[in-house]
Structure formats: structure tokens, C-alpha cells
Amino acid sequence: MIYRKKTYEIDPAYLEAFNDFFHTYLLPNQRKHGSKLVGRWVSENRRHITAIWEYESFEAYEKIESLVRSDEMHKTAQEKRPAIAPAILSSKQEFMEPTENYHVPRHIVAVSALIRNAEGEVLLVKTNWRSDTWELPGGQVEEGEVLETALRREILEETGIEVRIDKTTGVYQNTTSRIVSIVFEGVALNAEIVKQDSEIREAKFVRLTEGNVEDYITRPHMATRVYDALKSTETVPVESVKVKPYELLHRIGS
Fold first, then answer.
1. CATH 3.30.70.100 correct for 2-96
2. What would be the CATH architecture of the domain defined by 108-239?
3. What 3-state DSSP class applies to 212?
4. 146: number of Cβ within 10 Å
5. Which of 12, 41, 146, 160 has the least CB density, counted as fewest CB within 10 Å?
């Protein structure tokens, strides 16, 4: 891993405007193409803002940066930038490598689902940063969020489709990206796709079978999840709880 440290010296009077510019134009474009924001901080005197980004390698950073700069959102950001130009007094950037792994182990929990419509077709999406493949809709579970709630939220945000979740079909670990992914199966409650999320390039229902999976899902680890979901006849119970005091939040399966 390498880390990019970007520091701005700003006029404190423009802090809110600069933050709004970052969250509206810069952050979505970076995330769209695979940048991972570790964190962003402002100094006590509100004059310095520092952001740290994580990349698998310097080559990965260069590839992502090329995509960011060729994106239409970058062009829009450059057009809007003169409005906040007085805010930026100076900036600097440097790259850092970790001296050791000091972190408490962390994993991202992701959810996705094989969703069928009334005709038996499966809902697939194509993201901006994985445009070489279709995949099952879903996304990252926020801290404290119930798994099914996260899944229904992500699918609605991505496609405008409301869903009912019926069962689980598999659990998968990506050790490279530290992602644990839980795959579910369910049905669409409405028929019309309305692409809403800027991270999604396309979304559609397709007649998916074991024989044509690889025509759509080109990445092996994603294809495996789809094969398992298509063949699944049983479910493993999934449960979300709070403790101290105990409260059952949600459960799928008997």
C-alpha cells in the first residue's frame, strides 16, 4: 500500500465553501474510479486541511488519477474552481509508505443480491470503475446498519428498484481488498429501472442462466457468486442483533 497526503492552506473564511466543493465534485469523482479516502482533517486554526488517500501501488494511483482527470466531473470541477480560488493559499502533496502494520484488523462488509423480476430475469448493474463486467447490485454496509436494510437501500439508490429479500446464498471473502461479501436472493417489487446513483453506468434485467453467466460477469470471483445463487435451494440463517441489552433487529431463515 501507498498513501497520498494532500494538504491545503486555506483562508478560514472559505472553509465551508471549500468543504462543499470537495464533497460535491472531488470526492465523488475519486471514489467513482477506486480511490479510498482514509480521512480528511482540518487544523484547529482552520487554516490547513489534510486528506490522506490509500492505493494498492503507485501504478494504481496513476491509473486512477488518469481516469479521474478524463472524467466529465473533473471538467465540471475545473469550471467551478474559480469560485473557490480565493480560498486556496497554497497546497502540497507527498506520498508515504507504512513502516509497519499498526492497525486493528478491519474489514468492509458488503451485500449484494440476485434479484428476479416477474418474468424471472435477473437484475444486473455495471459500475463506472468495473465497466468490464456486469455484477449483482449491492454495496457497502454502513456502521451499525442492518444487512438487509443496507442491501435494500443500495439497490434502490442504484436502480430505483424496491426489493424483497428472501434468503442468503453465500458468503465470500476478498483478502486483497479486505471485503467480506454476503449474497442474498430476492424479488423485485416494481418493474421500472431508474438509474439514480452516479457510480452506476448501466442497469438492466437479463435472462440469466448457468450457461450464459460469463457472457455478463467477466470477473471469476463475481461469477462464482452468481453460479452459487442460481443453484441455491437452501438458505443459511442471517441475524442482526444489539446487545447490552439484547435486541433482535432482523433475521432471515428459520
1. yes
2. Alpha-Beta Complex (3.90)
3. coil
4. 16
5. 41
